[in-house]
Amino acid sequence: MKTGGPNDKGCDAIAIKDKVYSHYRYCIQIKIYSKITRVGINDIREVIDGIDIYKCDRGLIITTSSFSPEAISRAKSKNTELSFSSFLRRLVTDILLEPNYLNPY
Fold first, then answer.
1. Which domains does the chain have, with CATH numbers?
2. Helix, strand or coil for residue 49?
3. What's the average model confidence in pLDDT over 54-65?
């Protein structure tokens, strides 16, 4: 589910991972920054707020840049995963090439 926009409250999209052994609702935030601008602790706080607002279990931040040490530390303590844009490309490719993928639109 897409939620993004200027007032998205820290969550660009919501994804559900539903397996037999686990069910997680993710608040996903994508940060497109230059290589010299790091994702900081305020970005992490936004996602943590989004987890509460959208009643998610976990957060995921994907960036084109890197993460500050403070952001990494805070994310670890709050069920928030950090990743890079290469992860997003791989994820989208895997989903679109999945034989059972049905486009819901």
1. 13-83 (3.40.1350.10)
2. helix
3. 91
